[in-house]
Design a protein that fits this description.
The protein is α/β, with parallel strands linked by helices and about 400 residues long. It is built from 13 helices and 5 strands. The chain folds into 2 domains: about 10-125, Rossmann fold; about 130-385, no CATH class. The protein has a 5-stranded parallel beta sheet, sandwiched between helices.
Length: about 400
């Protein structure tokens, strides 16, 4: 099932339930996830249609098991074309929902499934239109991606051009990544307006995520680097620990890099590009496509004077970056789109790979790390059936 597209405004939900406690619980559940709830109720014989406003997108209807004969009348009395999610805990409610083709949820699992059901219901009537608009959506992706390339490539190519004698001075390389935020925000503002910029801002500051995602983001690169070192030793080669970066420098970089990537690379790749790709294709494919683009974005660094990646072999480098894209995408999806988690993963990646020598002069290390990462990415795709922890009904920006 294709996950629904994020609306440009909050979904307007009418909660129809006779029990005030049910209405209060559903209102809190939905508003905590950004929906706008139009609180209403069905009292006595008054049909649900009488209390549902014309500006409602979805009706969440809690059916009263004491009046089974009125179930179908309640549902059929709603305005034509209005999406409905039915709640209940008895066979009659389920049968009534099935008769009109409405999603049905048992009250026992509402907390886990209601938001996804509302999003799917809201998206159902616009799926065909969304598909027809996809070419424009692709244009947004292209523009955002070009914005992410434009600044860094201009800065890196100036250094390459200087080395080749084509120009006399190069742009200050320390500013290369910092060219990304203004260009990214401008591209989002032009293509998606305030909702697109707001969506990115929320992802950047999203800290309420499953605790295990922090541990995975921090620890996965360390484990891959340690495994690469073990393989390198087993093959009779030396591990260039500290050659590229000392331990104190690596720990300092971990902190600095998290903030750097939060506002630059990861804001773009995982904050803006990944969710839009996942609206158009399965998560595993989106992660691979993004990995290829992300790897291509890094290519100038392999020949840029002064770059830590200069001189690395292209094949394992590309394999490592693409595999890492899959792993980061999985962790970010599990963290509800948090860019902070992506930035921590990225900073741990750079710090641990620099300290243990994955990106050092012993190229056995990068081959081992690339192979381990590709295998881990494959296992993740298989174990999650390609979903990469993306929740059914997750919302997407345009």
């Amino acid at each position: 099932m294709t996950a629904p597209e994020a609306p440009t405004r909050p979904i307007r939900v009418a909660v129809v339930a006779a029990d005030a406690r049910v209405r209060t619980s559903l209102r809190h559940l939905l508003t905590s996830e950004g929906a706008t709830v139009v609180e209403s109720y069905a009292a006595g014989a008054r049909p649900a249609a009488d209390v549902v406003g014309t500006d409602t997108d979805v009706v969440v209807l809690d059916l009263d098991p004491a009046t089974p004969q009125e179930h179908l009348d309640q549902l059929r009395g709603l305005p034509a074309g209005l999406s409905t999610v039915v709640l209940g805990n008895d066979r009659h409610s389920a049968d009534a929902a099935r008769a009109v083709g409405a999603p049905y949820l048992d009250r026992a699992v509402v907390a886990e499934q209601l938001l996804a059901a509302v999003l799917v219901a809201a998206d159902r009537d616009t799926a065909a239109a969304t598909s027809r608009r996809d070419p424009a959506g692709t244009g947004v992706l292209v523009l955002v991606t070009l914005a992410l390339f434009a600044g860094p490539w201009t800065w890196w190519l100036s250094r390459i051009a200087e080395e080749q004698g084509l120009i006399s001075r190069h742009l200050p390389q320390g500013l290369a990544l910092w060219t990304m935020p203004p260009l990214l925000v401008a591209a989002l503002a032009v293509t998606g307006g305030r909702p697109a910029v707001t969506d990115l801002a929320r992802r950047i500051v999203r800290l309420r995520v499953p605790r295990w995602t922090w541990a995975v983001a921090l620890g996965t690169p360390v484990l891959v680097a340690a495994l690469a070192a073990a393989v390198t030793v087993a093959l009779g080669h030396d591990v260039p620990v500290g050659e590229v970066m000392s331990l104190p420098s690596a720990l300092t970089y971990l902190v600095y890099g998290t903030g750097l990537f939060l506002l630059t690379e990861e804001a773009g790749w995982r904050g803006a590009v990944l969710p839009r790709l996942q609206r158009r294709m399965p998560p595993w494919r989106a992660a691979l496509v993004l990995g290829v683009v992300w790897a291509g974005w890094h290519l100038p660094l392999l020949v840029t004077p002064g770059s830590g990646d200069r001189g690395l072999p292209v094949a394992p480098f590309l394999l490592l970056v693409v595999g890492t894209s899959v792993l980061i995408s999985g962790v970010v999806n599990a963290a509800r789109g948090s860019v902070v988690v992506a930035a921590l993963f990225h900073a741990s990646f750079d710090a641990s790979y620099s300290y243990l020598g994955v990106v050092g002069s012993e190229h056995t290390m990068i081959w081992a790390a690339a192979t381990a990462t590709a295998l881990a990415a494959t296992v993740l795709v298989v174990r999650t059936r390609g979903r990469l922890f993306l929740a059914t009904g997750a919302r997407y920006p345009r």
